[in-house]
Amino acid sequence: MKKLSLLFSLFILLTAFTCENEPLEGDFVSDTELSCDIATQNTQNAALAFLDVTVETYAQLCIAYRNALQVQIQFCGDPDGSLQTQIDSIGDCGETNTDPCDDATAASAQAATAYNADTSNLTLCSAYKAALQTQIAICGDTDGSLQIIIDELGDCTITNMSSGTLSVTAGTLNIQFITNSAVLESGMVIVNGSNTEQGANYFIEFQVPEGTTGVDVMQNFKLTLNDGEFFPNTDGFDDFTNNITVNSGGVIQGTFGGIVTRTDGADLNLAQGIVDLEY
Question: Which of 65, 81, 179, 208 has the smallest set of CB atoms within 10 Å of its CB?
Answer without folding.
Answer: 81
